Amino acid sequence: MSEHIIGRRSFDFEKQIAVMAVVNRTPDSFYDRGRTYEIDAAVSSAVQAAEQGADWVDIGGVPFGRGPAVSSAEELERIVPVIEQVAAASDVVISVDTYRAEVAEAATSAGASVINDTSGFSDPRMAATVAGSWAHVVITHSAGRPREEKPPARYADVVDEVRAFLAERVDRAVEAGIPRENIILDPGHDLDKNTLHTLEITRRLDEIVGLGLPVLAAVSNKDFIGEAIDRPQGERIHGSIAAMMACIERGARIVRMHDVASAVDAARMYEAVVGWREPVRVEHNAQPGGNV
Fold it and tell me: Where do the H-state alpha helices sit in the chain?
């Protein structure tokens, strides 16, 4: 099934790329370092992303990487007001990046229509909570809970192991009552993986797409890009767009990106090249009236 109603928008993933913007209401995000921590800045960033063409905004209150503990109450205090204000200002899809079931429940009540669980159901209550809300869920591969120190990543075959993990979590989600058509998969670029692992996942992303569900690629500004082309944080936009396009070519249909305007242009250009969308206008060397 390619057509999905998500929140107040409809997507046909046979011929459409959804661009997901990132809004982190955290003081220690790896990318923006707290730029959108203040509530007005977070709401403004989300609304601006929608105006720039983002289909989706992903709101987070706790970074994935290791760092100081953030309680559920504090996470809710960070994200719920943003969800409510963005939902009132725009019809953009709102997802919430959380691994806690109680936060997911409050987020969907506030207006979020997707739970982006970067821990792959580390909270045993998450699947049932999402099922009760009828929200969509992003199931992401990672090893263990976020915010914890982990040993160096080791895989015999990273793609096979990620694919098996995601397939098992899909079964768990369906058994809990989440409709299969409400499930999105994310192989977890860089999450508990080194650069070689993440490049291999990108190279063989079609094997994850082969599970038959929409695939989200969250590649923007990540360390595998910096290590692959030797660019520090803040200088990875071109590498991020290249990685995004590699994922789209291999079947990703949702891309999570920081630089919204560039990502939207690249995605819409891809759609035009493969014939999924008509050009906005046809004037160059065309007959009057835009005829070819």
Answer: 39-51, 72-89, 101-110, 126-133, 158-176, 195-203, 205-209, 223-229, 237-249, 260-273
